[in-house]
Amino acid sequence: MKPLTDVRIVEMAGLGPVPFASMWFADMGADVVRIDRKSGGTELAGVEPAFIRRGRRSIELDLKHPDGAEAASDLIASADAVLEGFRPGVMERLGLGPEPCRQRSPNLVYGRMTGWGQTGPWASTAGHDIDYLALSGLLHAIGPADRPVPPLNLVADYGGGAMMLIAGVLAGLMAARMGRGGCVVDAAMVEGAAYLGSTPYALMGEGWWQAKRESNLLDGGAPYYRTYETADGEHMAVGAIEPQFYAALLAGLGLAAEDLPSQNSVADWPDLHERFAATFLTKSREEWSAVFDGTDACVAPVLSMAEAPLHPHNVARTAFVQHRGVGHPSPAPRFDDAVDPDPLPFVSSGEHTDEVLTELGYSSQRIARLRAEGAVR
Fold it and tell me: Which one, of 252, 228, 250, lies nearest residue 238 by Cα?
């Protein structure tokens, strides 16, 4: 039995952090029912990877049809939590906002995911991960000295968005089960991303972080915390911060500490970087991997996404799996009762409409009428 086996989540179909959070809840054993728009899911084709839809059931409803909205309300009333990622006010206009839903189900945890939050001057404006990351102050700190670089859509979209939504909903579910009633979770990607940046913000407040990229400990400024090109045009990642790890790094590189500037002499970092760079260029990535394999030098090869699933450590851990011929990461984290890492099947839009409505007590005649009226598909 997985950790969330007795939890039901309703997901309002969309893009970005809500589908990712819903996938995680399903991977952890929750019964996740996704409300897809009544259009065969074509509006998401080519934008949402199929495997993100894995593990839950799907029902297609026309939420602008009164009967479709009523069916959605009934489904939400049967759930422990609902996850939605629309702009503020959309769910209210559909009659599915927190107030009516919690009137029907006082213990409901209502998870709301937006970029800017439910309030504020920008609350109703559009945006994407890069915009939320920009306003958090963190995009300014990421990348080479000459320009900021977006770290894919990992920090604001999935880190500050999906993972903060998951944490908020789990906290709400715990409170509800302790008899404190339900709650509304207002998860904003800009705030979640900023929260993930607590360490650099704290270092800046204490005078240990410069507002200049490639000048700090964790942004590539430190010669012992950055990537280096190898003889074959690949790269090695170095993270030897602690003295004992730094000593192992020097040993692997064949360099003597007495011949180099002090590790934390910031003024000498450019010279130290040049020495390390020249040394790494003398061997291929494979050769350096062999040198540092099994050591505490905190050095690892920079693998492509095609290479990562083939690395011996990832293979041993079953960190990646194949499903329907598509490789993707295994569910995480794992638990001591050995949850099967294999992900659940992909779902098609509307695949479980009749099944879910029947569970809610709808008769076959009522389901047929809803279908004939265009309220469901």
Answer: 228
Span 233-274, pLDDT tens digits: 999 999 999 999 999 999 999 999 999 999 999 999 999 999
Both tokens assigned to 150: 């977006």
Rounded to an integer, what distance in angstroms lies between the CA atom of residue 371 and that of residue 377?
6
Catalytic residues: 128, 157
Would you list the DSSP string of 78-112? T-SEEEE-PPTTHHHHTT-SHHHHHHH-TT-EEEE
Q: Which of 56, 118, 121, 59 is nearest to 84 (CA)?
A: 118
CA distances from residue 88 to 66, 70, 101, 187, 367 in whole angstroms, order as listed: 21, 20, 16, 12, 31
Residue 376 sits at φ, ψ, to 5 deg, of -135, 165
CA 30 vs CA 3, 25, 305: distances in Å: 8, 5, 29
Closest to 136 measured CA to CA, from 71, 197, 211, 63: 197
pLDDT in tens, 361-375: 999 999 999 999 999
CB distance 71 to 63 below 8 Å: no
| Max CA pair span of the chain | 85
